[in-house]
Every structure is written in C-alpha cells, then in structure tokens.
Model the fold of this input.
Amino acid sequence: MIRVLLVDDQPLIRSGFRALLDLEDDIEVVAEAADGREGLELAREHLPDIALVDIQMPVVDGIEATRRIAADPALAGVHVVILTNYGMDEYVFDALRAGAAGFLVKDIVPDDFLHAVRVAARGDALLAPSITRKLIDRYVSQPLDTGAGAGLEELTGREREAVALVARGLSNDEIADHMVISPMTVKTHVNRAMTKLHARDRAQLVVLAYESGLVVPRNS
Done:
C-alpha cells in the first residue's frame, strides 16, 4: 500500500486529488495539510511514502517544507513530489535542490498522475527529459559549486558513467542499452552512487552531477 500525504492550501485541489487516489486499491491518503508546517508535522506522525506538496503556501512554503523533510533522518523514506500550476519555473529548480524527488503540474491527466505517484513510491525520480534540459540550461551560465558532489572520488568508473547518463535524462533501460549491461545492474550502480554521494534520490543525483562538474552541459 502506497501511503500519501497531501499538502496544499486549496481544499478543492486536495479533495480532487484525494477522490482520485481513494479509487485505487494500492494507494491510501493518510492525511491532509493546508500549509507546510502542518505538512511537516503530519509527515512525522504518519511517515507517508509520498508527500504531494504545493509550492506556494502560507506559513511554510513547499520549498522550505521539502528542505525540512529532506533534512530529517526520521523522514528518509518520504519522497516529496512538488505540485505546481506553472510547470518548470524557478521554484521547481529550488525544490529539486531542496530534496524533492520531482514535480507534477496540477493539470496533469488522472492516469499520468497515478502513474507518477507509483513511480515516486518506487524511489524513481519524476524527471522527464524536458525537465533535465531545463536543469542543464540552468547550469550553462553558472560556476561550478566546488563543495558539491563530495564523494565523487569514491565512485567506480561504471558508477560515474551511470550517474552521467542519469544526468542526461536516460531511464534505467536506456542506460542498460548504452552500457551493455542489465537494468538491474544499472540500478545497483545508481543506488551505490546515491549512497556514496549522500543523494536521497535520482533527482538530487542529477543536481549533484551538474553542480560538481561530473557532467558538463553540452552547449557550454
């Protein structure tokens, strides 16, 4: 059973998502919150698998709520998925850096929404190639963060290759084809790299790859 926490200051949005999720046999909405502070409290109380968090909320906004969840060792199993009305805007990048596993636009079609919840529950990042390109564009004009990616020297050559391909937006199956290995071996390389780099998920791994200079934007 996938346990979901809804965090949004608009009751109509919460009720709409809840109605959709309640129809699924493998998904349970465990709690609802109207702001980030309440969401953090409920996350600690219920330990959901997924926290669907709106970006713009009163009291504590979604980015700060995400940052606090990501920083709490007791909430290491909670995957934050950001909800936004605007698609890939400046807030989404900040949310990914704060520790979000990905993001969803609120006008997403129901089937895609349910699929995304299940993907996030597996620990996979919700990073479509278009989003990855936005991240790449963001780094073209930025200097490298010399403090990012501590632990890169501990990665094996195959782990570094796998991380670089993740940062290009490739799926495990696509990486497997590129590296001529099995998808399970890809997953092992990625998981080990995440552990060594202290990355919560694939989304943070992508950010670290560009911040550290492991991957250089193609058009830089």
Observations:
- The mean pLDDT is 83.
- The longest helix spans residues 183-197.
